Amino acid sequence: MLDPAEVFDQLGADYEAAFHEAPLVWEGLDALLARLRPGDEVLDLGSGTGRPVSERLSGAGCGVTGLDVSAAMIELARQRVPEARFELTDIRDRDFPPESFHVVVAFFSFLTLSRAEIRTMLERVRRWLAPEGMLALLTVPGDIEQRVVRFLGYPIRATSFTAEQWPDALEEAGLEVLWSRSEPFVPTGRSRAETEQHLLLLARKT
């Protein structure tokens, strides 16, 4: 089985094509843009190819830092969104000073972690956020931990919480859930057999 970096190196632009039209990606971005101002600092965890998250937020005048474990994704992101900063790193290994960001975006980036690592990352996100800072988290809910699943044709170990458990995990980390949305999505170009449920949560540092 390939590790996550190898999987996303293989997927490259195919990942962007499959998920670019996910409605909750765009709804999450709209919600953030309604709250952000030019010059605000944004951290994009698991930034992928940079589209659409880093591209749209940097286009609104925000300073965007993207982190990704895939060298292929980082190379694509630097080409697509040259105005943002992208670092090749595991999100578990990177740290920032307290209150460095107005917004942290985590779109599907916690799925390959363990539950203990997810809880640790949520605590770190809270520390990195400025007062009243926001976290936008998009995931595939489920009562699973390190379960082998097929992801765009590749076997990968996935972890999540149920839709009912996610708000509790955020609130335990000191993040107040403002609202959540959930709906099914079929990755572009895939069969309905690959339908997955998406869960978007917007939370604020308390």
**How many helix segments?**
7
Ranges where pLDDT stays below 50 over 5 or more residues in a row are none
User: Which shape, going by the Cα principal axes?
Assistant: globular
Quaternary state reads single chain
Q: Give the name of the CATH architecture.
A: 3-Layer(aba) Sandwich
Largest sheet: 7 strands, mixed
Strand line-up in the sheet with most strands: 3-2-1-4-5-9-8
Taking all Cα atoms into account, the compactness measure Rg is: 16 Å
Number of domains: 1
Mean pLDDT: 95
What is the helix/strand order?
HHHEHEHEEHEEEHEE
Looking at CATH, which topology would you report?
Rossmann fold
CATH homologous superfamily assignment: Vaccinia Virus protein VP39
CATH class: Alpha Beta
Question: What proportion of the residues form beta strands (DSSP E)?
Answer: 25-35%
First and last CA, distance: 40 Å
Question: What class do helices, strands and sheet pairing give?
Answer: alpha/beta
Report on this model:
- The N and C termini lie far apart (40 Å).
- This protein is of the alpha/beta class and 206 residues long.
- The mean pLDDT is 95.
- It is globular.
- The strands form two sheets. The chain has a seven-stranded mixed beta sheet with strand order 3-2-1-4-5-9-8, with helices on both faces. It has a two-stranded antiparallel ribbon with strand order 6-7.
- The longest helix is centred in the middle third of the chain and has 14 residues, at 115-128.
- It has seven helices and nine strands; from the N terminus they run H-H-H-E-H-E-H-E-E-H-E-E-E-H-E-E.
- Strand 6 (144-151) and strand 7 (154-160) form a beta hairpin.
- The protein has a single domain (4-205), classed as Vaccinia Virus protein VP39 (Rossmann fold), CATH 3.40.50.150.
- It comes from Actinopolyspora erythraea.
- This is Methyltransferase domain-containing protein.
